[in-house]
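Weekly modeling sync, notes
Attendees: AB, CL, MP (scribe)

Item 1: holo prediction request
CL wants a bound-state model with adenosine-5'-diphosphate before deciding which constructs to order. AB pointed out that an apo prediction alone won't tell us much about the pocket. Agreed to run with the ligand included and paste results into these notes for async review.

Input as submitted:
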Amino acid sequence: MSPIRVLEGSVAERIAAGEVVERPASVVKELVENSLDAGASAVEVEIQGAGTRLIRVADDGEGIPFTEVALAFQRFATSKIARLEDLDGVHTYGFRGEALPSIAAVSRIVLITRTEGSAPATRAVVTAGTVEELAVCGAPRGTVVEVERLFYNTPARLKFLKSPAREGSLIAEAVHRAAMANPEVAFRLTLDGRVAGRWPRSSHRERAAGLLGVGDPAELVHGSEAIPGGRLEGWLGRPERGRPNRLGQHVFVNQRSVQSALLRRAVEQGYSQLLPVGRHPVFILFLEVRADWVDVNVHPRKLEVRFKDEGALFGAVARAVRTALLASPLTRSVASGMAERDAAGPGATPSPLGTAEDAAALGGSLLWPDDSSIAEPGEPGSLYSAGRRLPALKPLGQALATYIIAEAPDAIYLVDQHAAHERVLYERLVASRRKGGVPSQVLAVPVTVELPAALMALVAAQQDHLRQAGFDVEPFGSGTAVLRSVPVLAAGAPAEEMFHRALGALAGEGEGNGVFERLCIATACHTAIRAGDRLSTGAMERLLADLAVAEDPFTCFHGRPTAVALPKAQVERWFLRG
Ligand code: ADP
Ligand code: MG
């Protein structure tokens, strides 16, 4: 073994640099954050060779005075905090004074900067951490940092980089995140001479829509709510914008982009049953939380957060998202965008589609039927106090033996009879739990099924849930279970098949959180009118009336829409009226 010795400064710098400067995207993140900390109103990022040839970040911020430029490249030199106590109130991205020296240790930097008051600008050249040149020159106010030949003296790190395309997309993500949190700042990103993104100064809504890939900003659902220890603001994509992955989900805590499985799950919970299984909503969530409520680990590689009361926060976020979503008109219309707003615009529909207060008045009553910790049981009598959320619909007939054509004062609706009935039955089942359980009917002939031991154990353990959901299932000897009664709603359906569905729900098959919810879904799905069933006018009227008072009339629990609106204004455009 070699003798122990203190590392030479330059070696130590290069090792430490790895913490901040892991890859080109982390350099971009640090430089852009410095620009934002300097109060820039425009930031331009230019990349060549996936960042290993050149990273150039230019801003119009406050600049660095000549006398301080060399200092900026020293470790732990920062203008952002002076004392340890300042840490609590820090409002800037940076405060450790580590980024510039760390980047400088593994590259060649040319920095040009000018403050408002000083006439000439300063030009500094720093190679491998050493300031080699310090001169004056002419330049506009602000700072330009050019990082050349990143990692030229750390070949191991260079080898560790991913493909240029991958590094390029990580760089773009870093710029996107900065742009999301700072809509009042203009951004431009150029990759190898090609403009990869340009975001003019804008409102939060427009910036969010642009970055989430939602064409029309008006389409985003906005939620803003007080939460334990602070406030949240969310920009939520409509359910049909859902994607098969979670790449469109962004969480910011006190302006910093963070990884938080907790908050993502909370938002997804707010969307539950609005999206088909396997689709994930797109959203940007901003949380502003008091310093004593949050512990943000600002280590550049793991931006993880811990909160004081995670349970309460989870519930508050999920509820706020749910409230915002339910308060917005979610019915799809034939041409989204224009037509959508026509349908929802003030005065366009005589019966209101529901307001935020309506949704708030509903509380958590039906939203989390499992009474999990986040649900607040509502008053039984207040379930439908929010009134209609769909306009009154008059059935005109049935098309393709599957869709009810209905008329509202200002729109024509197509209603999927199966999806709508599923929704109605499901809500009815869940609501009856509060009145002591789902009414059940004893089968004339009990059904007996042989079961593996694990499922037998489940039947025994879940008997209460089963009974509440209207199923009387009992273990009967070893390896056999017998079904004695089913929910009244399902009494007409083949009992044997109903039994298998109930067992499937018990074993965790199908959708729904928790046994009770899954059992209700299984019952509703199995019992609902099917596509292809012919309906009488009376049956259609009943179904539409029931749907109109449903808490969530817009989607079935598989996340499919129940109704599609064709606004009168749209029809008039088609026929060139008005
Ligand atoms: P930190 O951001 O943690 O303070 P950095 O190493 O990133 O540390 O930057 C060191 C200092 O250099 C900053 O505190 C700031 O005073 C100055 N600085 C860096 N970049 C800029 C910039 N784009 N505009 C103005 N000042 C800057
Ligand atoms: Mg910094």
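Recorded for review: The mean pLDDT is 82.
Action items: CL to compare against the apo run; MP to circulate these notes.
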